[in-house]
Structure formats: structure tokens, C-alpha cells
């Protein structure tokens, strides 16, 4: 590695650090603050273990999410708040274990907005995850 290559790479890394304040072990992120172990996120605040997410705050273990807040274990969710273990869901609030749901509030074990018992839910979700390659 020559001097110029080193200096260019160092400048690139320093620029990334400036645009991500108080972040730790975060790579490829832009304009994030107080995040840890995040990858390729943008405009996130206080998120941990987040990947490819935008505009999320106070979330952990999320992937491909947008504008979600105070949630955990979300995959490809949009505008979900205070929810946990959601996949491909949108505009859900205070929900747990929902798959492909839209606009639910305080619900659990739902697929496409329909309720299921716990055992059936996990059986169907396992098949859907494989089929959809989520």
C-alpha cells in the first residue's frame, strides 16, 4: 500500500466516523448516533445489531427496517413501534410475533392480520420463512 492509498483510506474512515457520532463497531453507516454493532444503516439513533435499516431509533436486532422505534427482532418492517419478533409487517404498534401484518395494535401470533394459536403460528412461520427466503 502506498502513501496516497493509505491517506485516502484514512480520510474515508475519518469522514465516516464524523457522520456517525458515538457509534461503536458500526460499518457502512451514515448519519447514525449512539449505535453499536450496526451495518449499512442510515439516520438511526441508539440502535444495536441493526442491518440495512433507515430512520430507526432505540431498536435492537433489526434487519431491513424503516422508521421503526423501540422495537426488537424485526425483519423488513416499516413504521413499527414498541413491537417485537415481527417479519414483513407495517404500521404495527405494541405487537409480538406477527408475520406479514399491517396496522395491528396490541396483537400477538398473527399472520396476514389473522390470529393463530402459538403452536400453529410457529409451524406456519417456519414454512413461510423458508418459502420466502427471509
Describe the structure.
By secondary structure, the chain is of the alpha/beta class. The protein contains 2 helices and 7 strands, in the order αβββββββα. The chain has a 7-stranded mixed beta sheet, with helices on one face. About 25% of the residues are buried.
Strand share of the residues? 15-25%
User: Globular, elongated, flat, extended or rod-shaped: what is the shape?
Assistant: elongated
Distance between the termini: 39 Å
The overall average pLDDT, rounded, is: 95
Number of E strands: 7
Helix content: 10-25%
Largest sheet: 7 strands, mixed
Low-pLDDT parts are none
The helix/strand class is alpha/beta
Order of helices and strands: HEEEEEEEH
* Major sheet: arrangement of strands: 1-2-3-4-5-6-7
Number of helices: 2
Q: In angstroms, what is the radius of gyration? A: 18 Å
For the record, the count of structural domains works out to: 2
Topology diagram in text:
Elements: H1 3-19, E1 48-51, E2 60-63, E3 72-75, E4 84-87, E5 96-99, E6 108-111, E7 114-115, H2 118-132
Parallel strand pairs: 1-2, 2-3, 3-4, 4-5, 5-6
Antiparallel strand pairs: 6-7
Summarize the structure.
The chain is an alpha/beta fold and 134 residues long. The protein is built from two helices and seven strands.
Keywords:
single chain; 134 residues; alpha/beta; 2 domains; seven-stranded mixed beta sheet; 2 helices; 7 strands; 24% helix
